[in-house]
């Protein structure tokens, strides 16, 4: 994706030229850092612009969230979509979580250069972050991208979401094809598929899994990771094909 096309897209959504400039600067930072360590698998800036930035934010550019809304990006990797959301929506407060120290250091340095005072980068495993009492029911919404099994996403995100908060998972799957046992796990932690009206109210467009926390998450979640991993391995993600 080339710069002019990307700029036109942002303008069509009402974002400022300053936001575009910051996103291009961030893209250059990712490109430079990728030459030093394994930050992303994309090889060209054009591919990064499309695969990392555009594809990540296009479902979220119409977010309907009030000033002061907080979100968490669990398993953020290179900082997408968390950094991008903090650039486009400066009234959001974002916490970006990843267990890779190099990636968190990169995000922290990027946030400083981009003057993103609304972003905090945390080095932690997803289950450890969710276990912390300081993070219980703290966030209005959660995003996860390339995070691993959907089972993990449910168990790590639900405990840190406020009731009526939502979880958006980047996935090519639809809720209709998910296995019954996986849906039960989501409901056990308090998450239920959001309706089309709830998705519209939140400002979520396009594909991806959208879940709303309608029940309080039981205090037993998240469990210890070996248990989560074991149960996830026994849980099919989709309905078996005939």
Automatic annotation (TrEMBL):
<dbReference type="Pfam" id="PF02527">
    <property type="entry name" value="GidB"/>
</dbReference>
<keyword id="KW-0963">Cytoplasm</keyword>
<keyword id="KW-0698">rRNA processing</keyword>
<keyword id="KW-0489">Methyltransferase</keyword>
<protein>
    <submittedName>
        <fullName>16S rRNA methyltransferase GidB</fullName>
    </submittedName>
</protein>
<keyword id="KW-0808">Transferase</keyword>
<dbReference type="GO" id="GO:0070043">
    <property type="term" value="F:rRNA (guanine-N7-)-methyltransferase activity"/>
</dbReference>
<dbReference type="InterPro" id="IPR029063">
    <property type="entry name" value="SAM-dependent_MTases_sf"/>
</dbReference>
<dbReference type="InterPro" id="IPR003682">
    <property type="entry name" value="rRNA_ssu_MeTfrase_G"/>
</dbReference>
<dbReference type="GO" id="GO:0005829">
    <property type="term" value="C:cytosol"/>
</dbReference>
